[in-house]
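From the thread on structure requests for the teaching lab: each student submitted one protein with a one-line request. Submission from student K.M.:

"Model Uroporphyrinogen decarboxylase from Scopulibacillus daqui, tokens only."
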Amino acid sequence: MGKKFNDTFLKACRKEEVPHVPVWYMRQAGRYQPEYRAIREKYSFFEINENPEVCAEVTRLPVEQLGVDAAILFADIMTPLKPIGVHVDIVEGIGPVIDNPISSLQDIGKLKDLKPEEDVPYILDTIKLLRNQLDVPLIGFSGAPFTLASYLIEGGPSKGYHKTKGFMYSKPKEWQALMDKLAEVTVSYLQAQIHSGAQAVQVFDSWVGALSAEDYKEYIAPTMTRIFKTLKENTNVPSIYFGSGSSHLLEEWNKLPADVLSIDWRISLDKVRALGIDKPLQGNLDPSLLLAPFELLKERAKKVIDQGISRPGYIFNLGHGIFPSASVDTLKKLTDFVHDYTSKN
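Reply posted by the TA:
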């Protein structure tokens, strides 16, 4: 694009001095954008994913429209599961639906290894394209093992995750085998994204808030430690960890070798810091405020920012993803506000 490369986001991930607070938004490419809706009329979700030019356009669009400081690869957490033998479909209004749920060690044994260069070359090609097109960092991402396992066991989205937790409690050997398999897939997928040019990675553990801190520590933390430790040893890019409804897990998260914690909107950043957490933080405006009068939105954003910048290493984001009825105009104004309010020029 010819503009000077804006590395503010990467600096914040490393707790370095920044000219302004960097901003990006989870689900910043999506249905709230008229242009994205027009693209979706021509292509299914996975067709966009599998067409590098279109996927790069969708990823780039919010950067151009909103002026954010980072792009996030447009893909789905299910993308690496299709090639390992999971029959998954993204159903409108429901989400990922799997027609061959896992219930035994035999089912887990049928899952193949992920070979990203052979299995998801289109994802890696999209990243290579974007590195030439973007003047902001590109964030790669993956789903986390618990969240992926919840879809694999439940067969789709769930309210209580009872089947998943029942499997975890009653079949510890099978659960560990599934965690090990999904950890390998996650690491292979993220390392391939990094080698193709992703400059940071975010691991989405969207549904892990369904677990107590005790269960997280016992059944999940060893797997997440392994993932973040392997990424740290083999790459030099920042890693971010996000989960919704997971404020009660933050003290466990703080022990992980993840570089940045992305905080959901249910807890204030002051309270996060009061827990003794000194890692860089990302977040955590309630997405619903995007529908509030702009003065109120500004006031609440200011409050989040003031708490965020009390220590070095802060990235402004929402506490969950953008939803379809949000407006491009509001998000653009919010991005400009964050930049203006925190600018050191």
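TA comment: The chain has one domain: 8-342. The two ends are 24 Å apart (CA to CA).
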